[in-house]
Fold:
Amino acid sequence: FPVRLVKIRGSVISSEGRPAEGVMVTAAPRNANDSNPLFGATATARTDSNGNFTMTGVAPGDYTLNARTSQIFTSGGEGGNMTFTMMRSTGPGGSEGSQEAGAVPVTVGGDDMSNVIIVTTKGATATGRVVFEGGSKPTTNSMRISAAATEDTGPMTLISGSSTFTPEGTFEIKGLTGARVFRVTNIPAGWVLKAIKVNGTDITDNGIEIKSSEPVSGVEVILTSKVTEVKGAVKAGNDPALDYTVVIFSDEPEKWRVPTSRHIATGRPNQQGQFVVKNLPAGSYYAIALEYIPQGEWNDPEVLERLKSKATSFSVAEGEVKTLDLKLEGM
Structure:
């Protein structure tokens, strides 16, 4: 049946109380499974020199209006011709790279909406350093740390939550708010993440709640050269299995729900039919060898709950090499 598409009019105000010009505003559906086929579309608009925007073609439904000021567009032109120039965003002191974002929930019905106000915030800055335990200190040039949102916290998830490390091993991430979990990539060979702490408190798996007005300092990224290794073979009946997927997962269900959990890993057989899984954190686990499991399904807590009754329990200590003999199982 015909659906009336409506307009949303509003304005974006910066944290300084000024109209935010050239800001992209998007309408993100809050229910991606809505039965309305038009609801999955994301409407967009851009603010004018007075911070005002008009978004057209919005279907009825529940949305979050997100505004992000990471890129500023200034308008101008002569003779009725409008032009837009993209610039680096700047903060109160004129420094490059500052970013702000804001969000407001709206429910769209059959009538146009007006006077929607979105106020943006800068978010907080997290600072810290990397600590190497064991072995000689490697270079940190290629390492990168990110602060991923653990849930939908609105547009602040759009702000770049990552940073490289300095040669001295320090980092700074700007524009953060809400629940965040830190992750490190491009870790030097022979090293693995042991823990991430904030002023002595371990936040590796549970993350931290960041308030936009409170900087986070004292973040320690602890890497260790004592790398774990889990290896072994799989049998199908009395014969060696040559095609399988080994799924290893923590025996603590709460760790299954952590984004990009360090406590879930998979392995495939090499040419000799052996599997090797490295870099698991020390702890207690389940391991199971499966004939087939769809890609990524090992991250589903419900799937892991079903598998654990058929899995083999084991533990691995820091720096330990553990050998397992597994039997091939079906899903």
Summary: The two ends are 43 Å apart (CA to CA). Residues 269 and 275 are 5 Å apart (CA to CA). The first helix runs from residue 301 to 307. DSSP finds one helix and 26 strands in the chain.
